[in-house]
């Protein structure tokens, strides 16, 4: 049954959701209830909904809540406005693209941010203020002074005031990771990482002939004692950590453990690459590890995971000048520069505050989507209400590859744990990404299908032979 109860007011049916304090924002509860009523047939295409003021009075909420609920329902293609005649339940929309992509970590489109206008305004400002010829020619690797100053401003919430000359501008975090491996390690060297880690690290290390060894992790991230033991045993060239809302487990390493890991890095004289794309998306994130061991840690912050992937801009904080020079030489061997136009746009957005507004919109949208996950997959996942993904532990009768194949047959793409494994062992889990699907209604439907699939057993999904 839907969450609505039918109340007759003369001849007009009024549908009222039962609002619950711990079920997330009220406007989302109302939109969810509308969708549930359509699923169970309580509301049908063409049914007229009550005026917003009337519904606000019935529910004893403010008008803004109802307006946001109706706007959310329109985003899900549940409602349509017919001018003065009111708001009606929409007919089902034919979906030509049946695949729901829950496999790619991208920022969700934020509600209330006109991205098209923001893009046009930003490019307009860049073209007015910059020499257009300079936007279409070669630049030195590492970014110009304006771009590096923008990077220092971007990193200020983590580190306070920075010397912009210690900041390097890169064409994305993956390029930065690859260049750091080339600059700070030799062929055959060991790189230490958590058992589940970012797949791009493994790809780059394998390509360059480095070996990744997994270090034990628990619910708080990499275990310090195990890191120290691995450092003494393997003499690693680098330690790779993704400490905030880790990809894929969504774990955030607490401050006390960050201090312990930094102390070990200093004691063992090993470099840490702190890849921290989700710091801005976390609620009250701890200080970066780099604040506790500035000379031992290279810090990477990309715009791709909190603003938009199309910028392909990352900022790398490297304190030691000789390491910056080695890093830039390695970077130039395969990526001469960030595209000047996108670097200028990123700089413009950071300096004029647009980046902060977009990031806040992405953060709020991500949290709304986590409320949705919490309601549908309660007790089955780790995600902690922030970031772009959740880590879903599977019941024992499923393994990750089986479940991913079964989800694919249901039209849903997810990422199995094997994609993240740095050693021989793997977890019985999948990563679900929340940002790639623009429409929340489609995301909700996909999560509900996954929830149903979790209750089934693999033998129920043997492929038909045709």
Automatic annotation (TrEMBL):
It holds the Pfam family Aminotran_1_2. Residues 24-92 form the HTH gntR-type domain. CDD domains: AAT_like (cd00609), WHTH_GntR (cd07377). Keywords: DNA-binding, Pyridoxal phosphate, Transcription, Transcription regulation. One of its GO terms (molecular function) is pyridoxal phosphate binding. It comes from the Bacteria. In the C-terminal section; belongs to the class-I pyridoxal-phosphate-dependent aminotransferase family. PANTHER family: HTH-TYPE TRANSCRIPTIONAL REGULATORY PROTEIN GABR. This is Bacterial regulatory s, gntR family protein. It comes from Collimonas arenae.
